[in-house]
Amino acid sequence: MKNLNVQVFADGADIEQMKSAYQNKEVDGFTTNPSLMAKAGVTDYKKFAEEAVKAIPDASISFEVFGDDMETMEKEAQIIKTFGENVFVKIPVVNTKGESMIPLIKKLSEQDIKLNVTAVYTIEQVQEIVAAVKPGVETYVSVFAGRIADTGVDPMPLMRGSVKVCRQKEGVKLLWASCRELYNVIQADEIGCDIITCPGDVVKKIKNIGRDINELSVDTVKGFAKDIQSSGLSLL
Prior knowledge:
Layout: E1 7-11, H1 15-23, E2 29-31, H2 34-39, H3 45-55, E3 60-64, H4 70-80, E4 87-92, H5 102-110, E5 115-120, H6 123-132, E6 139-143, H7 145-149, H8 156-166, E7 172-176, H9 182-191, E8 195-198, H10 200-203, H11 216-231
Parallel strand pairs: 1-2, 1-8, 2-3, 3-4, 4-5, 5-6, 6-7, 7-8
Helix pairs in contact: 1-3, 6-8
């Protein structure tokens, strides 16, 4: 993966794209969420998950609960964990009412369930998650750096601080979520982030890391020339 220390996960729910990325060793793991599943046209959650794990038996895959209360989330988490040894259960740090899911996170972690705690935006949330999980149980803390940047706020101070907090407990890994561009992969790698999730268009650009930018002017103009030819437009 271009000598990167950060692991690159593909973020999506298109089963064929997931299979291709796994077979071609384009990424180190996979994450999904309800929005991505809806976009991909998934109609049967269990069938989709079972097909994904069968095709991808030895790379991390995260599946998210759909419930909005602790009781429902716990029941769904118990189902999701049975999908495979490589499966992480995604639990949001809060529900739609803003209620903390930390008690549930703590309870599931005590049962040795691998978690991907999602929708994280503050250092206080990171600290609460790390304090709640059981040492040695694999846990991802997914901080939505890209969405923070979308508000005009630099996410880097939070991400650097989160790296330090996550290092305090064995088994905890910091995940840079909502990647917007390839340079985010470099940023995540430089600060010591463990994982970054990337959409398909960014995954395709990983091969560009290390390219000589002096080549880009010619490549760009060649692209213009190709589009001019196919468009049929002319000035003369």
